[in-house]
Amino acid sequence: MTLETTLAALASCKIEPKGSLSHEPITTDPSAWKSALQAAPSSAASVPSEYKLTKTLVFKPKTAKSAAPTPLILIASEETDTKATNAISKQTGLKELRIASDDLIKEFFGVDKTSLSALSLNAELLPKVVVVVDDALATSDNVFAVRAASNEATVFMTGKDIYGYLSSLQTDASNDQAKVLHTFDFANAAEAAASSTPIAKAAAPTKKTEARIEDAHQLAIGVKKEVDFSTWYTNVLLKSDMIDYYSVSGCYILKPWSYTIWQEIQHWFDDKIKELGVENSYFPMFISGKVLEKEKDHIEGFAPEVAWVTRAGSSELEEPIAIRPTSETVMYPYYAKWIQSHRDFPLKLNQWNSVVRWEFKTPQPFLRTREFLWQEGHTAFLTKAEADAEVREILELYRQVYTDLLAVPVVPGIKSEKEKFAGGLYTTTVEGFIPTTGRGIQAATSHCLGQNFSKMFDISVEDPNAANKGDKLFAWQNSWGLSTRAIGVMVMVHGDNQGLVLPPRVASVQVVIVPCGINETTQESVYDACSEVAKTLKKAGVRVKADLRDTYLPGWKFNYWEQKGVPIRLEIGPKDIQKKQAVAVRRDNGVKTTLSVDDVATQIPALLETIQNEMYTRAKETFDQRLIQVTKWEDVVPTLDNKCVVVMPWCEVEACEDDIKERSKSTEQTDERAPSAGAKSLAIPFDQSKWEPIVPGKTKCPACGMDAKRWTMFGRSY
Amino acid sequence: MTLETTLAALASCKIEPKGSLSHEPITTDPSAWKSALQAAPSSAASVPSEYKLTKTLVFKPKTAKSAAPTPLILIASEETDTKATNAISKQTGLKELRIASDDLIKEFFGVDKTSLSALSLNAELLPKVVVVVDDALATSDNVFAVRAASNEATVFMTGKDIYGYLSSLQTDASNDQAKVLHTFDFANAAEAAASSTPIAKAAAPTKKTEARIEDAHQLAIGVKKEVDFSTWYTNVLLKSDMIDYYSVSGCYILKPWSYTIWQEIQHWFDDKIKELGVENSYFPMFISGKVLEKEKDHIEGFAPEVAWVTRAGSSELEEPIAIRPTSETVMYPYYAKWIQSHRDFPLKLNQWNSVVRWEFKTPQPFLRTREFLWQEGHTAFLTKAEADAEVREILELYRQVYTDLLAVPVVPGIKSEKEKFAGGLYTTTVEGFIPTTGRGIQAATSHCLGQNFSKMFDISVEDPNAANKGDKLFAWQNSWGLSTRAIGVMVMVHGDNQGLVLPPRVASVQVVIVPCGINETTQESVYDACSEVAKTLKKAGVRVKADLRDTYLPGWKFNYWEQKGVPIRLEIGPKDIQKKQAVAVRRDNGVKTTLSVDDVATQIPALLETIQNEMYTRAKETFDQRLIQVTKWEDVVPTLDNKCVVVMPWCEVEACEDDIKERSKSTEQTDERAPSAGAKSLAIPFDQSKWEPIVPGKTKCPACGMDAKRWTMFGRSY
C-alpha cells in the first residue's frame, strides 16, 4: 500500500495526520524505525517535534480445530508494558493468547508484520479480528508514529485519532462493536497485579497466585466516567457482572446481578398495580401483518423496526408474522370482543414480557437494545375522566420506581405533540437526566390513547344511559410501560470510577462482610464472627453476604465488591472482635463508621436507609442545579453545551420545536453514542410553580417570540 | 352438484351414508322435503325406516364495512329450537347475527339456499366460514336426512357422521379449527335462559334482563367431559376465562384467570430454587443459525419446529436468526466463557421466559402451543455426583408443584433411552395421567446432560488436583424445565361438567361470597354481612371475593363461579344473618356445610386445606387404580384400551420399545387430538418397591421374553 492510499483513507474519515514521511524499509525493531525517522531532513515539516512510537502485536487465541481463528491485534504505545495477556484474555473472552506466526499475519492481513499497524485495518478486516487498543494511546492527545500500512512510510497521528480511525471502521453490519474494538488499561492492570500478592505462605501454591492475579486484572473499569462515558458505561456493566455481550448484535445477556434489580422493580410495581385492580395476563409475541397494520399512525412509528418471521423449520409461512414491538394491536381486537357492555369496564390488563424493536442505530445495553424486557399495561374505561386519572396514578408509580427504588430524580410532565406516542391522545412522562453527558432521558411513559384505537378496533358499548338508548360509546384507553432501561439510567447516574453504585433498596447484596487482617491462628475466630454478624443481619431483613473465600486477599475483595456496587462493606478483623465492633464502609461516599456488633441489627438498616436517601438527594441536587431557567434565546445553546437542561416558557407550537432542534445543534461531539443532536422538548413539567408564573400575552417564547404557554424542558437527549 | 359427487366426497372421508335418494326439487319447507322423501318407493332400501330432518341456516354477522363478511352457517336438527342466536354470538365472538340474504348465500356457497347443507361445505370453503353444529345432532347416533348439496337429492347419515364429515374438512392450513367449527348445546342454552329470569320488579328494565339472559347462555360447558373430551377441555378453558383464541394459529391468550395460577407456581418454585442457590437471568430470544446448529443431535430434535426471523423492517437480514426453542445453545457458549476455573462452579442459572416451537400438529391450549411460557434451569458442576444430586432435587420440586400445588398425582421416574432429551445423558420425569382419555402425560423433566454439551462448547477448567496439573475437566451439566402445560394437566384432571375445579392453593379466588334470598328491605344488611365476612377472611389470609353485583341472580352467580372453579362458595342470606351463620358449598364435591360466622377465620382455611388434600387423594386413587401391573403380553392392549397405564417388567431394549409401540396400536379412535397411537414407555419409576422384586435372569419382559430389568410404565400419551 502506498502512503497516498493511506492518507486518502484517513482523509475520508476526516482525520488529519500531524505529518507523514516515506523512508527506507524498516524491521520491527523500534530503534531501526527511530533511526529511519531521524534520518529524515530535520527541516521536514512533516515530522512533528515530539512523538512516540507505536507497536502492533498479533495474537492467536485458542480455538477449536475446525473453527477459523480470530486474531487479536493489539495496538499500543511502544512504551507500554503489554505483558498482561491473561487480563486481555479475560476482557475479550479469547483464551490462551499466543503470538501469531508470521505466516498467519501474512495470510490474514495480506502484509508482512513489519508493515502491520492500525492503518492496516479497514472496514472489511475489522469485523474479522478483535482489536485491543492501549488506553494510554486511545485517550491521548500526544502524537504517535504509525506505520502507514507499509514498512516504507510513517504517519503521525494523535492517539485519539488512531482510536478514532479504528472506530470509524465499524459498521452496523459488523458484530457488536465493543466486541471487536476494546480499550485496555495496562497501567491499571499492572497495578492491580502488584497489589494483589497472595497471603504470605512459605510454600504457597503458585497456581492459586496466578488465578488471583488473573482475576485481579479484571477489576479495573479501565476508563474514566468523565473522559469516555460510553466505554465507562459498558465496562461498568461488564465488570460488575450485570451484562454480557451476545452473539446477536443489539442483544445482551442480563446476568443475575442486573436481573435481580429488575425482579425488585417487578415485585414492587406488580403489587402496586394489583392494588389498583390491574390483572396480569400474557398475550402471544406474534402478530399477523394484517392486524399490525390496522392502525396507520401507530404502525408508521414502528414499522421500520419490526422483526418478521417468514419461515418455520423448512416451510415458508403463507403470511409473514411480526414479533410485537408493543402490544396495542395484539390486544385490542380482543378488548373489542371482551367489552360488550358498560359493566365490562374498566378492563385493566398488564403483561411482563419482552418486545423486539430491530433498531439499526448503535445499540447500548439497557438503553437501546433489539429485545428488551418491560411491562406494558393496557386499560379501557367508559369515561375520559377515569382514563385521565389512571394515566397520572401510573405515572406516579413510575416516579416512585425511580425516586424511591433507584434513587434517581425524575421530573413528571407531559410530552409535546411532536414527542407523544404515535396514535395516542397525549403522553405523560417521567424525565431523567444523565449529568455526565448533560442529556435528558425518557424514563417511563404513561399514555392516554383517547378513543383512537377504540374507534379503530371497535371497542364500544351501548350507552348505559336510558335516555341515549342505542348510542354507541367508544372506550377511553391508556397504555403505559416501564422497561429495563431504568437499570441503565440508574447505572449512569450513580456509577463512579470504581464501578457500580447500587441504591440499597434494589441491591441484591446490601452488605458484604469481609474478614480482615487475619492469619492462620485468627482465621477461624474471625470467620465465625463474620458468619455470626451475617446471621444477625439476615434476621433483621438485610440482604447480606459474608465473603469468606480464602483464595482472595481483603484488598482484592474490596475492589471486587466496590465494582459490583454493594452499598455497605463491613470489615471485621481480630482487633474488632476484641472490641466487639465492625467497620462499615459506604460505597456511595467511602465514609467509614465503627459500629458496635451488638447494634448492627438496628444500625445497618438505618445506614442503608441513609445511603438510599443521600444518594437520591445528591442526584436530585445535581439535576436541580443543571435544570437551568432560560428566557433568552442566546442562552439556550450555551446552557445545553454546558451539559444542562433548559427550562423555558414555550409557545408549544410544533414548528417552533423543529426550529429549536435545528438551531440548537452543537458542533461538539462528546459522546459517539448520543450524538450532539439538537435539543428537543423533554417534558412540560406538571409542577410549574417552581418558575415565575407565565403571564398570558406577555411572557414570550424565547425561541420564536410568540406567546408562551408553559415552562417546558428542552435538552439533548438519549 | 350430483348425488354421485357428494357420495364420492363422503367415501373419500370414509363415511358410509345410511342411504341416499334422488327426488323432485324441493323448497326450504320441511314438509315439502318430507313429502318428497315419502314419495320414494317404500321398498327402497336407500331410505332408512327412521330419520330426522336437518336444517341449515346462514347468518351474516356485523362486520366493518371494508371487511369481507364471514358467514356463520348453522347446521341443526329440524326439531331444535335455534333461536338462541345471542348465545351463539357470545360463543363465536360474531356480533349481531342476522339471517343472510339469498344473494349472499348464492354468492358465497355457489348454490341456492334450497340446496344448502353441511354437504355444501368443502375444505376450501370451510376456513372462510364459521360453522355451528347443533349438539343434539353432532353427538347423535340417530340418522338424519341431509340435502346432498342439491335440492334434488338427499343423503341419510348419523349425526356423528355429519359432524365427522365437517371435522374431516379441517386442514392444518385453516385457522384454529375450534374457531371455525363449533358445537352448540341449544337445549342447555334454553334451560339456562329459563332459569335466569330476573328478580321480579314490576317495571324491570328490559335491557338488564336481556344482558342477563345473554350472559347466562355463556355458562354451559356445552359438551360432556366423558363424551367429547377435547371440546369439553377447550370449552372449560374458554368459559372459565382462562384463555382466548388468538389470530395467529397455535397461539393462545393467557387471561388473568390462568396467568395467576402460573404466577403462583412461579413464586413457589422461584423461592425454592433460590434456596438451592440458583439465580435468575435473562438471555436473548434470538440465536444465530450457526450457534444453533452446533450441537447436531440436539438441533435435530428441534430443527423442524424452529421459527426464523429473516427480515427487519424492510431489510432482509444477512443471516436468518432463530427464535429459541430452548436455550442450551443460547447459553452454553457463555458458560464456556464464564467458567474459567474450578472455583467458578457450580454455575446455576434459571430463566422465566417464553420459547417458540412451531409445531404443525393440531394445537391444544397449554399442551401444544407454538409459543409457551416456562422456566428453564441450566446448571454446570465440576462432578457428576453433584449434577446427579441436583437433577433429583429439581425433580422433587416438580413433583411438589404437581402434588402439593396443583393436587395432581405424578410418578417420578427416569425416561428410556428412546424418550430422553436429545443430546442429554439421561432424563428424569414426573409423569401424569389423564383419566378421561387414559393417557399418560409428561408433566416436567429434569435432564442430566452429562458432558456432551460441555465438550461441544468447551466448558472446561484445569483439574484443581495438583497431581493432574494441566488436565482438562469438562463440566457436568443439567437442564430442567416446567411449563404452563402444568395448568392444562390440572384442568384435565380436576375439571368436571360444570367447568373448572381449582385446587385452593393456586386459585386466585379461593372463596366467593354470594348474597342469597334478598329483597329490597334485606339487601343492605345482607350485603354488609357479606362484606364483613370477606374482610374477616382476607385478614385470615384467604383470597376472597364478595360478589355483590345486583344485576345477577344468585343462581346465575352460582353457575358463574362454579364454571370458574372457585373452591368454596359461601352463601349468606337474611336467615343466616339471624343465626350468625353461612353456608359453605364445596366446588369439588358439592358438599354443603353450615358454619358459624364467628368461626370462618379458622374453619374456612381448614376447609380449603381439606379440599386441597381430598382433591389430591381422589386423583391419586384414580391414578393408582388405573396403573395396572401386567406380566403377560396379551393383557397389555386390553389394559390400554381400558384407559389404563401398564406397568410391566421391561428389558429396556430400544428395539423392544419400538415393537411394543407398533403392536399396541388400537383401532379405537377416542380423541381426535390424541390419536390412539401405540403405547410408549412413560417412565421407569424410581420407586420400584410397589411391585414384586424383579429376579435377574428369571423375570422376563412380557413383550420380548428377554430378561426384564425394571418395572416400567407404558401408555398411550400426549
From TrEMBL, chains A, B:
Enumerate the UniProt keywords alphabetically.
Aminoacyl-tRNA synthetase, ATP-binding, Ligase, Nucleotide-binding, Protein biosynthesis
SMART domains for the chain: ProRS-C_1
What Gene Ontology terms for biological process does this UniProt record contain? prolyl-tRNA aminoacylation
Q: Where in this chain does the record put each Aminoacyl-transfer RNA synthetases class-II family profile domain? A: 259-503
Q: Does the record bear Zinc in its keywords?
A: no
Q: Does the keyword Glycoprotein apply?
A: no
This entry's Enzyme Commission designation comes to 6.1.1.15
The record's GO molecular-function terms, alphabetically, read: aminoacyl-tRNA deacylase activity; ATP binding; proline-tRNA ligase activity
State the reactions this protein catalyses: tRNA(Pro) + L-proline + ATP = L-prolyl-tRNA(Pro) + AMP + diphosphate
Q: Which PROSITE patterns match?
A: AA_TRNA_LIGASE_II
Pfam families the record matches: HGTP_anticodon, ProRS-C_1, tRNA-synt_2b, tRNA_edit
Any GO CC annotation of this UniProt entry: cytoplasm
Family, similarity comment: Belongs to the class-II aminoacyl-tRNA synthetase family.
**Mind telling me which PANTHER family this protein's record contains?**
BIFUNCTIONAL GLUTAMATE_PROLINE--TRNA LIGASE (PTHR43382:SF2), PROLYL-TRNA SYNTHETASE (PTHR43382)
This one is known as proline--tRNA ligase
